[in-house]
Amino acid sequence: MKISFGFNTIFVVLSCAWIAYASDPSQLQDFCVAVPDANSAVFVNGKFCKDPDMVVAEDFLKQGLNNAGNTSNQLGSVVTAVNVNQLPGLNTLGVSLARLDFAPYGINPPHTHPRATEAFLLMEGTLYVGFVTSNPADLNQKNKLFTKYLNPGDVFVFPQGLIHFQFNVGKTNAVAFAGFGSQNPGTITIANAVFGSDPKIDPDVLAKAFQVEKNIIDYLQAQFWSNYN
Ligand SMILES: *[C@@H]1O[C@H](CO)[C@@H](O)[C@H](O)[C@H]1NC(C)=O
């Protein structure tokens, strides 16, 4: 009995050791449509790599994140991103960050990062933050909301792809920094994508989807859906 158990244990351990990982690499932007001719290509999955002999320290440096962003907009918040588009040295390295500034009662509206989890550190102010889970398997259950009030020094995690928001509930400015597990996390602001797309989504589609009269959709689509994040 004992010998048999030992053999089985070894067999299981060896089986696990042989598990191979074979899949396509994860995407580094929304899409990468193939072109037949390399000369007409713009980038690969990510960006092209600079000749290592030509790389300089400045390729890994981005300055100015000590400066507050300009929150004079209708949301009262602004995101200063430092991803591969601002800091080329991040290419292929799988991380990036951002500074977030909030005026009193400013909001970073519901949005998702399709390619990254976000670790969010509040430095100043008081924020009400939260995220919502994806649709549950059980038809009787609802998407679940997780929220917290954050104070300086608090870190909150927004899991990859989930809709989340941050709202300044204090009477002072708020400042936060966010780390992302992607060189290019991407942002989909829900209202902008749904009501502010170019061209517009057929209002009949949205009226049915949101279970409202078409004039409400017409109103929403007529708004100015600007992008500060
Ligand atoms: C902030 O943005 C507003 C609106 O675009 C602009 O009027 C204002 O001059 C900006 N302030 C600074 C300090 O850049």
Q: Secondary structure elements and their pairing?
A:
Elements: H1 2-17, E1 77-82, E2 96-102, E3 107-112, E4 118-124, E5 127-132, E6 145-150, E7 155-158, E8 163-168, E9 174-180, E10 188-189, H2 190-195, H3 203-210, H4 214-221
Antiparallel strand pairs: 1-2, 2-9, 3-8, 3-10, 4-7, 4-9, 5-6, 5-8
Helix pairs in contact: 3-4
The structure holds 2-acetamido-2-deoxy-beta-D-glucopyranose.
2-acetamido-2-deoxy-beta-D-glucopyranose is lined by residues 70, 72.
The arrangement of helices and strands along the chain is HEEEEEEEEEEHHH
Poorly predicted ranges: 10-14
- CATH architecture annotation name of the largest domain: Sandwich
- State the helical fraction: 10-25%
Q: CATH topology of the largest domain, which one?
A: Jelly Rolls
Per DSSP, what share of the residues sits in E-state strands of 2 or more residues?
A: 15-25%
Order of strands across the main sheet: 1-2-9-4-7
CATH class of the largest domain: Mainly Beta
Distinct small molecules bound, one entry per kind:
2-acetamido-2-deoxy-beta-D-glucopyranose
Q: Outline, from the CA principal axes?
A: globular
Find the CATH superfamily of the largest domain: Jelly Rolls
Q: How would you characterize the largest beta sheet? A: 5 strands, antiparallel
Number of self-contained structural domains: 2
Rg, alpha carbons: 23 Å
Q: What is the residue-averaged pLDDT?
A: 91
Distance between the ends: 63 Å
Number of helices: 4
Counting DSSP E segments of at least 2 residues, the number of strands comes to 10
Structural class: alpha+beta
